[in-house]
Design brief:
The longest helix has 24 residues, at 265-288. The strands form two sheets. This protein has a two-stranded antiparallel sheet. It has a two-stranded antiparallel sheet with strand order 3-4. 71% of the residues lie in helices and 4% in strands. The chain has one domain (2-327). By secondary structure, it is mainly alpha-helical.
């Protein structure tokens, strides 16, 4: 009943979000970097946030710090959806928020200097990498379900008290939202949703590592969110190789290139789901291996993925790919 209730809640909140978006004209307008041809309502991320929050409160899942810490990122994304914020301003605010959270104790339990750097990169990197993945109907939502399943497995394996149940209600909310978000999408997550999901993945990863730190778990966490890491690093490498600013958005992400080469929208989304599942699978295999085999397997998987994508020329694309008129993060 817990998960069915969350599913129903997000359906209701999504319907209400569509109504509010239409009422107050909060749309994602078509543009050079957009695949959709008509305005699509935002506020889907807000619907997911409140459905998960209410379910957690009702079922005594002690994730109050997650909701408290994620709220500023949600608000930043929502303001960007409504008013639009420059990439530089967003990056500065994200950085300030990240350092504040680090001061409040949200950091990896290792050497303080290394911990601050890695935690900062973890938070800002996850928020932006997840945001970059939100480029096709149902893409980010479905991938987030798969990533959450990976986190569920890791949390169960180390015996964390509340993250497994949180992951299950999070999955239920995402599946409910997917009913509105899969092609053709009736509502988008918006930056509010992608920032909330990105921060949630960063928070869960850091919390698991604080609970039972090991470099094997660290490698497993990176693999579980690997689809975001791979896409974002490939995007930055590609832009640098083409002589562009690394934060100038374009329509050359991995999913864009698959769509360009296949011409099949749903197939592209499903192939990205497979890629996310492979990352989760590598994370699970890595965690179940003993030392030093886990490191060998993990490194082999990372090298293979990047070599494969470079071989397919995903790092360098033709000039026909459109570039954003201003930087995006």
């Amino acid at each position: 009943m817990l998960y069915i209730g969350t599913y129903v809640l997000v359906l209701l909140f999504s319907k209400f979000g569509i109504y509010l978006a239409l009422r107050f004209r909060i749309y994602d307008q078509p543009g050079d970097l957009k695949i959709h041809k008509k305005p699509v309502p935002y506020l889907g991320g807000v619907a997911v946030f409140f459905a998960v929050l209410l379910s957690a409160l009702i079922n005594h899942i002690y994730a109050s710090q997650l909701f408290l810490f994620s709220s500023p990122f949600l608000i930043l994304g929502l303001y960007d959806d409504i008013k639009s914020v420059s990439s530089r301003t967003r990056f500065i605010i994200e950085s300030i928020l990240s350092f504040i959270l680090i001061l409040f104790g949200l950091r990896l339990p290792i050497n303080i200097a290394i911990s601050v750097i890695l935690t900062y990169l973890f938070i800002v990197g996850a928020v932006n990498a997840v945001n970059w993945m939100d480029g096709m109907d149902g893409l980010l939502t479905g991938i987030s379900v798969i990533v959450s399943l990976g986190y569920y497995f890791l949390a169960k394996q180390i015996g964390h008290p509340w993250i497994p149940n949180f992951c299950l209600i999070f999955i239920s909310a995402l599946l409910g939202f997917l009913a509105f978000n899969f092609r053709p999408a009736k509502i988008f997550l918006g930056d509010a949703g992608s920032y909330f999901i990105g921060f949630t993945f960063a928070y869960i990863g850091i919390t698991l590592l604080k609970f039972d730190f090991s470099w094997k778990l660290f490698a497993s966490v990176l693999s579980v969110i690997g689809v975001f890491i791979v896409d974002s690093t490939i995007a930055v490498l590609r832009r640098i190789r083409l002589g562009r600013h690394p934060f100038h958005g374009d329509r050359s992400h991995i999913y864009d290139q698959i769509y360009k080469r296949t011409g099949k929208y749903v197939l592209t989304v499903l192939l990205m789901y497979v890629m996310a599942a492979l990352g989760v699978g590598l994370g699970i295999v890595t965690f179940t291996m003993s030392s030093p085999w886990y490191l060998i397997i993990w490194l082999a998987g990372v090298i293979f993925v990047y070599s494969f994508l470079i071989k397919l020329k995903f790092v360098s694309v033709g000039p026909e790919m459109k570039e954003a008129k201003e930087p995006m993060t």
